[in-house]
Amino acid sequence: MNETQEKTPLEELNVDGVVIGVYDDLSAQAGNLKEYLTIGKFEGKGGQKRLLFNIDGIKAPMVAVVGMGKKEEIDLETIRNAAADGVKLLRDNGAKSVGIASLGDARATAEGVFLGLYRFDELMTMNSEKRPNLEQIIFSGDEEEIKEWLIGKTIAEAQNFARRLGELPSNIATPTYFVKQTQEAFKGIDNVKIKAFDEKWAEKEKMGAFLSVAKGSDEPAKFLVIEYNGGSEGQKPLAFVGKGITFDSGGISIKPSANMGAMRGDCSGAAATIGTILAIAKLGLKVNAVGVAPLTENMPGGHATKPSDVVFASNGKSIEVENTDAEGRMILSDALVYTEKTFDPHTIIDIATLTGAMVIALGEHYIGTFTRDDKLWEELKEASYKAGEPFWRMPLDKKYRKQIESTIADIKNTGGRPAGSITAAMFLAEFVERNRWAHLDIAGKAWSSSEKGYKPKGNLGVPVRALVQFAINHQKE
Ligand code: BES
Ligand code: MN
Ligand code: ZN
Question: Which residues of the chain have pLDDT under 70?
Answer without folding.
Answer: none
